[in-house]
Structure formats: C-alpha cells, structure tokens
Amino acid sequence: MFCDKCGSLLKPCEGKMQCLDCGVSKDEGLIKDQKKKTKKIEVMEQIKESYPIIDKNCDKCGNEKVFFWSIQTRSSDEPETQFFKCIKCKHIWREY
C-alpha cells in the first residue's frame, strides 16, 4: 500500500499502516499476521527408483530389465550419454 499524501510506502505500525516518509497513518487495509498450519513431513525408509524401466540385458547378471536415464555429459553438438542400472544386481553402466 502507498500513502495518499506523498506516495511513499506504508508499513505496519501499532495496528495501523504508517507512511515511511510523512508519518500519515491509515486504519484500513492492515494485513494481520496469521499462523500457517504446517503439514507433517513423512520420512521414507528407502529411496525408491523412479526412472523408466526398459528391456536391456545386464552384462553382469544377465537380467533383462534395467532403469534408464540420460545426461548431456559432453558438448551440446554431441549425443547425450545413456546410463543403465540393473534392477536385480544394481550394476550401473553407460553408453555413449
């Protein structure tokens, strides 16, 4: 809110809005502090994988299901690096 007299910013002071420059105060428009209700945060016991699962053979254990993600690890004119993680043995490898 701004002062009608000088246009300066009004600040809350003793239950009213008061001008920072000229000291004019207003009763209307005061925003009262309200306590916000907090939500309970749940702590997970285990980290759950949320990557897409694809069919690809793991060289370590032979399992055919792996998690998949890709990251741009080199310059932008080269293809991104693909990472794979076996669902069964948790072996991670990459392909360029």
Q: What this model shows, in words?
A:
The protein is mainly β and 96 residues long. The protein has no helices and 7 strands. The chain folds into 2 domains: 1-31; 53-95, N-terminal domain of TfIIb. The chain has a 4-stranded antiparallel β-sheet, with no helix packed on it. The protein has a 3-stranded antiparallel β-sheet with strand order 1-2-3, with no helix packed on it. Strand 1 and strand 2 form a beta hairpin. It is elongated and about 80 Å long. The model has no long low-confidence stretch (mean pLDDT 82).
Query: SSE string, helix = H, strand = E?
Result: EEEEEEE
Query: How would a textbook summarize the main sheet?
Result: 4 strands, antiparallel
Give the termini distance in whole angstroms: 57 Å
Number of distinct beta strands: 7
Mean pLDDT: 82
Helix content estimate: under 10%
Number of individual domains: 2
Q: What Rg is obtained from the alpha carbons, in whole angstroms?
A: 30 Å
Q: If helices are DSSP runs of H or I spanning 4 or more residues, what is the number of helices?
A: 0
Give me the side-by-side strand order of the main sheet.
4-5-6-7
What is the SS-derived class?
A: mainly beta
Beta content: 25-35%
Unreliable spans are none
CATH architecture of the largest domain: Single Sheet
From the spread of the alpha carbons, the general shape counts as elongated
User: Which topology of the largest domain does CATH recognise?
Assistant: N-terminal domain of TfIIb
CATH class of the largest domain: Mainly Beta
